[in-house]
Write a structure and sequence with these properties.
With 377 residues, the protein is of the alpha+beta class. The chain is built from nine helices and 21 strands. Bound molecules: flavin-adenine dinucleotide.
Length: 377
């Protein structure tokens, strides 16, 4: 049976990941919000290292350690630092404990996203989990957003009439792309990852540069470890990342990585390959819409800033809307000013990110003629 339901809201947020939930929580006191995510529940994802500056946002929104009713044990571990083999075979230790904002957190990503979703529900935000955006029409100063439930059993369509849209749908930027905004990709980086029980004594994160890319490993709650390899898809045999056996065959050639995989392959989960390239939208804001988080700009995971940026973007929108409330149709001068300020903010973050990325990749000179490094130097 298929059924159509009409919803009227002030702001519709497409994507209930980190950016979408933080934006929803920060805006909930002022606006009527509907948040939509194609996934019924969060899934396991790579990306666990949360920058210390995020603590400021948690404080402002009474989240995580600042949420007095919460047991954080299963949500994150304190990151003890990073051992880095980058630019030389000698280990370089980066101690995270001296950061004035506090420590880096190694998240259980699925549990963290679940926690953010639960908080949006508690805040009374209208949540449509398991609903995918499929059509966006702008008419008479309002957006008409159609979504469909993702399950075959229950085909329900929601038509959401909204004054303002926030695209928080991640790297795919489904809303922005559906209205014709171009997405630019600056490289082709991919990451393949596995998860396994952690038996090691050394609990620091590890980063290792290699001729064809770089390795990363970190521990996460519940005695688990993740290991990933970042490379360009044309540089490795296309079967390398197809299944666990081929990945392990490749990984075990690297002595430092082999040391971290001291368990039977029966205990290892092969998680597959994801895009990890630097991309951005041509415009992060337009007619009564903006894009935040990965939907606006996505980073190379080397930066470890994607989640913090997603949260910070959510907060930026709230602050900007407090200053210039363009949610309801207002005169075009205000709307233009809002879009100009937000676009400048995103451009500044992007420039800053590109400079840092260049600096990091330039610090590795051992394989200058290898295509992976030559493309990035
Ligand atoms: C290999 C790798 C490692 C990383 N490591 C780190 C790290 O250590 N630290 C860090 O800070 N960052 C890391 N990142 C980056 C981080 O994961 C992202 O920056 C972060 O997930 C961005 O959050 P977001 O909410 O903007 O997007 P997402 O997390 O992608 O959320 C988007 C949401 O939108 C939903 N959605 C998508 N399309 C639709 C649609 N059509 N309709 C409805 N819903 C939709 C999705 O289901 C999802 O829930 C890493 C990324 C990669 C690829």
């Amino acid at each position: 049976m298929s059924q159509e339901t009409n919803i009227d809201t002030e702001i519709v947020i497409i994507g209930g990941g980190i950016a979408g939930c933080i934006a929803a929580i920060s805006l909930a006191n002022k606006y009527k919000i509907t948040i939509v995510d194609k996934l019924l529940k969060p899934i396991d994802r790579i990306g666990e290292s949360l920058a210390p500056a995020s603590q400021r946002i948690f404080r402002e929104l009474d989240l995580l350690d600042n949420d007095t009713n919460l047991n954080t044990e299963n949500l994150y571990l304190k990151n003890l630092g990073m051992q880095s083999y980058w630019g030389s075979n000698q280990v370089h230790l980066v101690d995270h404990l001296k950061n004035p904002d506090g420590f880096v957190r190694n998240l259980d990503r699925k549990a963290f996203e679940n926690y953010l979703r639960e908080t949006t529900v508690k805040k009374g935000i209208h949540c449509l989990w398991g609903n995918k955006l499929y059509k966006s029409i702008y008419k008479d100063n309002r957006w008409r957003i159609s979504t469909k439930t993702n399950t075959v059993k229950n085909r329900e369509t929601f038509v959401i009439n909204a004054d303002f849209v926030i695209d928080a749908s991640g790297r795919q930027a489904h809303f922005a792309k559906s209205i014709g905004i171009k997405r630019m990709a600056f490289d082709n980086l991919i990451a393949c990852w596995i998860a396994l029980p952690d038996n090691s004594e050394n609990k620091m994160s590890t980063i290792i540069a290699d001729e064809f890319g770089w390795w990363y490993s970190a521990i996460i709650p519940n005695n688990k470890r993740i290991i990933s390899f970042q490379t360009d898809p044309d540089l490795i045999d296309k079967n390398t990342f197809k299944n666990l056996d081929s990945f392990l065959h490749f990984a075990n050639k690297h002595p430092k990585i082999q040391k971290l995989i001291q368990t039977s392959s029966n205990n290892i989960e092969f998680k597959g390959t994801v895009s990890a390239n630097s991309t951005r939208l041509e415009n992060p804001a337009g007619n009564q819409w903006i894009a935040i988080g990965d939907a606006a700009i996505s980073f190379d995971p080397l930066s470890s800033q994607g989640m913090f940026n997603a949260m910070a973007n959510g907060m930026q929108v709230q602050k900007l809307l407090n200053k210039l409330d363009v949610v309801k149709p207002v005169n075009t001068k205000y709307r233009k000013e809002f879009n100009t300020i937000y676009t400048h903010q995103i451009n500044d973050i992007w420039e800053h990110y590109l400079n840092h990325k260049k600096l990091f990749y330039n610090a590795e000179n051992r394989w200058k003629s290898s295509p992976f490094w030559a493309r990035r130097l």
